[in-house]
Design goal:
This protein is an alpha+beta fold. The protein is 44% helix and 10% strand. The strands form two sheets. It has a five-stranded mixed sheet. The protein has a two-stranded antiparallel sheet with strand order 6-7. The protein starts with 7 loop residues before the first helix and ends with a helix.
């Protein structure tokens, strides 16, 4: 997949694919979910109907795109799916849960949240649940898991981000580096590299249960990385300038310009007084 521009739809798809590499499912088809819930207790008539509507919308959109790719003249209304016809056993619920993550009482000295009591993972853990033929909710998938759901084990290192998501990270940082407020810095490459590194570390921490706008999440992370490097370089530059002035040498042009400006302002104030 060639990355020409970035949008939330493609970002969400690649994030989903990347997270799936860290998961295990009883059937590969169960990797898709229709609704995200905080616990199994939230599965009821209302949320089941909501999940059916979400699946119907997705099926209709996929059918529209498929027929459109074949060159057919089709309207979205022609591909709409009646959610009432979708069986309850076909919907998948993503339940945000730490139940399958091992306890770790030594990771935090003063644990405050549920996550602090468990092993550290690279994104919020979850499980996939669905109704079986007997109308009973069963677990059909786990994140950070390798092998069978019953006999497998917790594993947080066997997956990886997709190549397309990695290219999206790079593209986002490259475009941000061309902004007028940062492109003039001599250490622009360092800022861009730090931003890419930051995205690889926190990119998958995006929580789909709280937002559907990963572009804003990634942009905020990139902005913070650029600002962090700028502040670090400014501190280092001030230290160098102080050492140069202490040894009777000329400081940087920035320090010289700032000094000349301060002197001009002082002279102006004295003349106006």
């Amino acid at each position: 997949m060639k990355v020409n521009y970035l949008n939330n739809k493609d970002l969400l798809e690649e994030i989903h694919k990347s997270k799936n590499t860290f998961c295990s499912f009883t059937d590969p088809a169960y990797h898709r979910y229709d609704l995200i819930l905080p616990s199994v207790d939230k599965v009821n008539i209302r949320t089941i109907a909501e999940a059916k509507r979400a699946q119907a919308k997705r099926q209709g959109s996929e059918e529209y795109q498929r027929r459109k790719a074949l060159g057919e003249k089709v309207k979205q209304a022609d591909t709409e799916v009646d959610y009432k016809k979708i069986p309850k056993t076909d919907v998948i619920f993503r339940i945000m849960s730490f139940d399958h993550i091992p306890l770790n009482g030594t990771r935090k000295k003063n644990p405050k949240t549920l996550a602090d009591h468990r092993d550290k993972v690279n994104f919020p853990p979850f499980q996939h649940w669905k109704f079986d033929e007997n109308d009973i909710l069963v677990c059909v998938g786990k994140s950070h898991w390798k092998g069978d759901l019953e006999t497998g084990k917790f594993n947080k290192d066997h997956g990886q981000i997709t190549n397309t998501l990695a290219r999206m990270y790079i593209k986002l940082c490259e475009r941000y580096a061309t902004r007028g407020n940062v492109r003039g810095y001599t250490y622009n490459d360092e800022m861009r590299g730090q931003a890419i590194l930051q995205l690889t570390q926190i990119g998958l921490q995006f929580d789909e249960s709280k937002s559907d706008n990963p572009f804003a999440y990634f942009t905020a992370a990139v902005t913070n990385s650029f600002v962090r490097i700028i502040n670090l370089e400014k501190r280092n530059q001030n230290i160098r300038d102080d050492m140069l002035e202490m040894n009777g040498m000329n400081p940087s042009y920035s320090r010289t310009g700032a000094g000349e400006h301060a002197a001009a302002v002082k002279r102006f104030d004295e003349t106006t007084d």
